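Contributing new records

If you add data, match the layout below exactly. Sequence lines come first and carry their own label; structure lines follow with theirs. Keep one chain per record. Anything else will be rejected by the validation script.
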Amino acid sequence: MKDEDIDLSDIPEVLDWSKAEIGKFYRPPKRSVTMRLDGDVIDWLKGYGKGYQTRVNLLLRHAMASAAGPPRRKTSRTRAIS
């Protein structure tokens, strides 16, 4: 079937794309990782119910978006303050 053969008469043509949301349905591929988190942090995340891993991802994505500029690489190995 060619594009010309498709009946589009019941679908209105979109002329104004000004309110379109770019990337609305884009989902980046997931990668499996292992993280060691404090027990109270896990308890807090799980306390909101099912989907704590998704919640972790959203929190990290928010932190990433809020950070100013690209991530900085450390030249020497330093231990994070806990």
